[in-house]
Amino acid sequence: xxxxxxALSFAxxxxxxxxxxxxxxxxxxxxxxxxxxxxxxLFDVDPSCSTPNPIYTSIGATPDGxxxxxxxxxxxxxxxxxxxxAQPPNGYASIWILVEGPEGTQQFPQLVLWDTDGxxxxxxxxxxxxxxxxxxFYGDLVIGEEYYFSVSVADDSFKGTFTMCVTTxx
Length: 170
What we know:
single chain; 170 residues; mainly beta; Jelly Rolls; 5-stranded mixed sheet; 4-stranded antiparallel sheet; 8% helix; globular
């Protein structure tokens, strides 16, 4: 039922039910790991991540996580936190952060998949150009366990909106 509701909500957003004032998490980004936005119900809603959906924002986010090992600048100006429960059948997770054109306004994005403790890095991706989409595939999750990922930027001037998609495959 939760997946159906998430899919219907996603469809309404894509059909233009809302204007640019409907930004999740709008004026209060989910920038603390303890308040991470649970996106488990969004797994496989848009498995190809083909529909731009820049409803997430790093504007107003503050740094509270670690630095990704692959980040070029080794700086963090703000994190937006998400969590999910690893899904069957294989415990795989693919995470896309899209920022180009209609997908968002954020620049120089950074992404880390964190273990169940929210501290231990499992995988990392960071920009290599000003505007750069990010992708992590991780295939060794324990089904039923809760994991975290954070989307960050190196400097306040790079904050903006982004599209996020999660799937159970590569």
